[in-house]
Amino acid sequence: MKEEFLEAKVFTLKKHPLVLDDYGEHLNINEFDFKKPSKFSKEQIRIFELIHNTFASLIETRIAIITRDILEISLILTEQKSFLEYVNSIKDQYLLGVIKSNVFSADIILQLNNQVLLTLIDKILGGDGKAEFKRDFTEIEKNLAAEVLNIFVEALQESWVAAEKMELSLKEIEDNAQFIRSIPPNEMCLVFNFKIEISEKRNFFTLCIPFIAVKPVLDNLNKRSLYEKDTTFFSQNKSEKLSDCLDSVNIGISVILGSADLTFNEINQLEVGDIIRLENKVSDLIDMVVEENRLFRVKPGKISNKIAVEIVEKL
Question: Considering the entire predicted model, what is its pTM?
């Protein structure tokens, strides 16, 4: 009799959203799917979003330095879904970076489609990144893609420092999510959806974190501990990291010996062996140009049969 009552009650809730209690008051009924239980609290999700907003900022900075181009990366959506649902939601050609951690108890998954990765590779190698890529990777491109994924992994590790210090590394690369067996199909996951805009193109990538992976650190995730562990992470430390990244950037310099004004006819008649007199005197200082900006006045000379300049003053 009790089982029949429970069955009838469930049926009533499904058919009639407005349910009255014994006193005629409306009851607030929240639907619960036992096949897809929500394992992350709203507070935990907000903390995860804070961490991964930092991740987006770090990636944006690092890739901008490497490609010397302006780009925008932002977290636009956080979802809870089973790993099977996540795998089925990936439609385009893609690569999956399987990331392991010395703290997490399971792997996490970084997914970027081929268009995003090939555009980034093209920009890093000096291209304009504007070509459309709708193909699979060559073996050489896969190795380059692994290097790009490692940039993402390093930024992800750094973004977690304020919450939990850990070591992350790229375990393997897959082009078919069906081959990933380290995460059960029904395992609930947090899926972070990011938007990336570069070279006038807009695209997306995702990060999938299973519940079983972050379960060991969930108890320590609260807003207070997130800021107490490293109060300077989002200010001083971030500036220092950015400065460290800039220190290794190669910048071209050039020295302008002088200039002269010639007519079109004079230029048209120039031949090998002709001598052009410049406006500068031999004793004059000349300009050193750094990335098209005149920054120093220098004196020309030589060192060990090599042309050299001595910086005399700053402009």
Answer: 0.62
Closest among 293, 75, 32, 81 to 183, alpha carbons compared: 81
In the chain, which stretches have pLDDT less than 70? Answer: 1-37, 222-246
Q: Total structural domains in the chain?
A: 2
Q: Is 173 a member of any domain?
A: yes
Residue-wise pLDDT for 248-273, tens only, equals 777 788 888 888 888 888 888 888 88
CA angle 185-191-196, nearest 5°? 135
Q: What is the pLDDT of residue 119?
A: 85
Residue 38 near residue 82 (C-beta atoms within 8 A): no
Token readout for 195 is 């938007």
Residue 204 belongs to domain spanning: 42-247
Please state, in angstroms and rounded to a whole number, the distance separating the CA atoms of residues 220 and 202: 36
Last residue of a domain, one of 247, 281, 303: 247
CB contact at 8 A, 171 and 98: yes
In a domain, 4, yes or no: no
